[in-house]
């Protein structure tokens, strides 16, 4: 519902697929069904991935989340709420969600990039050393991206990159992790994207150093659940801090990095930061004109009625 209204107030329509350099991209985090989990009988629950893959207004879909880095057997764990409750691979707690591979391919054929998001609000993540982080980068590469493994939750689908939504653990190792993913993908014809979802409070406690050390392609900054910098304060420049992110972007390791406004898709998807769809559309339009680094919007929580 929110997205319909957002789109109708959006200035530029008809984007086909993802273009990193545009300022009107829309990303949706898919997998957690946070609205449907709270209101199981209400309309508005998250729909099958394939539905969103048919929507030409959507450009990027991070699948959320790999919420445990080292689960049973040392293998990562994914949690997709009620979207995948299938069996796990033997000796692991990693769900086999091969039934999603078709939808992922459809997304990619339609130009939508699909990435794997690591972390989330309730997660067990983190590294004790750079070498552990490098080795985990190989695991992620083999499990979701261009490598090979017997335990690939999305079957033959090769995702388009990795997103870091790190909200727990420690800052150790993420620079080494990103560098290793870049090395592993260096010789690929396929482009692999690396994004992060820092809190708007600057600098981010877990990823601040990493963001200064290695180039990311885009940031889905969380302007929600953060009263000290959140979207609800857009009209107060002493609180709303997109300008700080924009200034940082220009002198960051990738000066072409795109910064997205991360917003809850409904008032139930986050504690604070929800603004109505027309207001979010207006904020996006104003930000698009003011800040060159603006890359678009991303929404978390449910989205429905995208037709
Ligand atoms: C995006 O812009 C940068 C900087 O101008 C350029 O190097 C890059 O090729 C562009 N990428 C695409 C996909 O157009
Ligand atoms: C949800 O729907 C089921 C089936 O109709 C019903 O048994 C249940 O009481 C409903 N729950 C709520 C919270 O309305
Ligand atoms: C779960 O398993 C069933 C039966 O094999 C399959 O049809 C379905 O697509 C799977 N779901 C996912 C999300 O992989």
Automatic annotation (TrEMBL):
One of its GO terms (cellular component) is extracellular region. GO terms for biological process: chitin catabolic process; polysaccharide catabolic process. This is chitinase. It catalyses: Random endo-hydrolysis of N-acetyl-beta-D-glucosaminide (1->4)-beta-linkages in chitin and chitodextrins. GO terms for molecular function: endochitinase activity. Belongs to the glycosyl hydrolase 18 family. It comes from Mycena venus. Its EC number is 3.2.1.14. Keywords: Carbohydrate metabolism, Chitin degradation, Glycosidase, Hydrolase, Polysaccharide degradation, Signal. Coiled coil: none annotated. Residues 1-17 form the signal peptide. The keyword Hydrolase applies. It comes from the Eukaryota. Residues 24-307 form the GH18 domain. The keyword Zinc does not apply. Pfam families: Glyco_hydro_18. Transmembrane segments: none annotated. It is an enzyme of class 3 (hydrolase). InterPro entries: GH, Glyco_hydro18_cat, Glyco_hydro_18_chit_AS, Glycosyl_Hydrlase18_Chitinase.
């Amino acid at each position: 519902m929110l997205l319909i209204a957002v789109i109708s107030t959006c200035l530029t329509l008809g984007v086909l697929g993802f273009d990193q350099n545009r300022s009107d991209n829309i990303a949706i985090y898919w997998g957690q069904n946070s609205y449907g989990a709270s209101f199981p009988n209400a309309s508005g629950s998250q729909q099958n991935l394939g539905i969103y893959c048919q929507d030409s207004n959507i450009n990027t879909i991070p699948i959320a989340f790999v919420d445990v880095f080292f689960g049973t057997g040392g293998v990562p764990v994914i949690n997709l709420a009620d979207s995948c409750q299938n069996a796990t691979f033997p000796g692991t707690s990693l769900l086999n969600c091969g039934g999603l591979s078709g939808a992922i391919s459809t997304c990619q054929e339609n130009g939508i990039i699909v990435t794997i998001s690591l972390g989330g609000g309730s997660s067990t993540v983190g590294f004790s050393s750079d070498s552990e982080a490098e080795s985990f980068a190989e695991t992620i590469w083999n499990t979701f991206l261009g490598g090979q493994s017997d335990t690939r939750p999305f079957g033959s689908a090769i995702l388009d990159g990795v997103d870091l939504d790190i909200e727990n653990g420690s800052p150790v190792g993420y620079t080494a992790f990103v560098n290793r993913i870049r090395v592993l993908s260096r010789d690929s014809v396929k482009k692999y994207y690396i994004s992060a979802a820092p809190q708007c409070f600057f600098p981010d406690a877990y990823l601040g150093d990493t963001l200064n050390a290695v180039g990311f392609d885009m940031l889905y900054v969380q302007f929600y659940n953060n009263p000290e910098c959140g979207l609800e304060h857009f009209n107060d420049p002493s609180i709303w801090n997109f300008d700080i992110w924009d200034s940082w972007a220009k002198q960051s390791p990738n000066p072409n990095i795109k910064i997205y406004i991360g917003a809850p898709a409904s008032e139930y998807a986050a504690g604070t930061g929800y603004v109505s769809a027309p207001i979010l559309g207006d904020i996006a339009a104003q930000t698009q004109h003011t800040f060159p680094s603006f890359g678009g919007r991303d929404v978390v929580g449910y989205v429905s009625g995208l037709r």
